[in-house]
Design goal:
This protein has two domains: about 90 residues, Rossmann fold (3-Layer(aba) Sandwich); about 120 residues, Rossmann fold, CATH 3.40.50.720. About 40% of the residues lie in helices and about 15% in strands. It contains ten helices and ten strands. The structure holds 5,10-Methenyltetrahydrofolate.
């Protein structure tokens, strides 16, 4: 079975749209982008497009690539204080030289629709999540909508990043899975991944996960957005070879990526609701 993130994201976006139309909420997402990385510009554009589709207002702050940490924090603090702004997203990665942790901590947790602030992280890890990071949040929505219950299953996450691997592990723990987190220092990765009932790959290497790493009947979730040697967009998983042995698998494109954006819209709507005490 192919887990159609594109289709599911459209369904979720339609729900967000109708919720906004039903209320007189005027949700607003602010994005902050530093420098001119074309991939980051593309992602931010996609987020603004999604806002436009569902009726979320969006404002974009663009700072030069040679900005100092303080400049970025100043921009964030303006948005913190602006009552019309409900969500703040600082596009990552930030240019080298900028203290990413400091910038993330400058976003007030109430507007942290990315779920990257340590307070929201801590809440997630203590089992009382508030804003959940959009990629792992979107993956949990995929699992729920396709009625894949992680409870009691063995889940293996490859990657331990703050934006994907770590919160993914926390969400799966909260959903009663038995969770293993693998990373660059893991010895015998294939031995670990082959035990997974649910395998989540967030490595960032084109077609790295082959069939020898996957148990027959496993659910395979591919977070990778890579380009292969021909410049073709592909995931971490060798889809052609893994799809036949998986019971369910997300494609790239059209899997996790669109769900990331849909979850960002949901988080922004939720923030606007709270702001209005609805
Ligand atoms: N503060 C912050 N929050 C993020 O959520 C964040 C970020 N920084 N930095 C970069 C990553 C990456 N990311 C993606 C979102 C959508 C797709 C997506 O929709 N991809 C399409 C394909 C798009 C294409 O054609 O390249 C798909 O998979 O179908 C991919 C990647 C959000 N990120």
């Amino acid at each position: 079975m192919i887990l159609n993130g594109k289709e599911l994201s459209e369904k979720r976006l339609a729900i967000v749209k109708s919720e906004i139309e039903k209320t007189d909420l005027k949700p607003c997402l602010a994005t902050v982008i530093v420098g001119e990385d074309p991939a980051s510009q593309l992602y931010v554009r996609m987020k603004h497009n999604a806002c436009g589709k569902v009726g979320i207002r969006s404002v974009g702050v663009e700072l030069p690539g040679d900005s100092m940490t303080e400049d970025v924090i100043n921009a964030v603090e303006k948005l913190n204080k602006d009552p019309a702004v409900h969500g703040i997203l600082v596009q990552l990665p930030l240019p080298r030289g900028i203290d990413t942790e400091k910038v993330i901590e400058s976003v007030i947790p109430e507007k942290d629709v990315d779920g990257f602030h340590p307070l929201n992280n801590g809440r997630l890890f203590s089992g009382r999540p508030d804003f959940v990071p959009c990629t792992p949040g979107g993956i949990m929505t995929i699992l729920r909508e396709y009625e894949i219950d992680p409870a009691g299953k063995k889940a293996v996450v490859i990657g331990r990043s703050v934006d994907v691997g770590r919160p993914m592990a926390a969400l799966l723990i909260n959903a009663d899975a038995t969770v293993t987190v693998c990373h660059s220092k893991t010895q015998n990765l294939a031995e670990e991944t082959s035990k997974a009932d649910i395998l989540i790959s967030a490595i960032g290497r084109a077609r790295f996960v082959g069939p020898e790493m996957v148990k027959k009947g496993a659910v395979v979730i591919d977070v990778g957005t890579n380009h292969d040697e021909n410049g073709k967009l592909c995931g971490d998983v060798d889809f052609e070879k893994v799809e036949p042995i998986a019971s369910a698998i997300t494609p790239v494109p059209g899997g996790v990526g669109p769900m990331t954006i849909a979850t960002l819209m949901e988080n922004t709507l939720e923030s606007a609701r709270r702001h209005a005490n609805l």
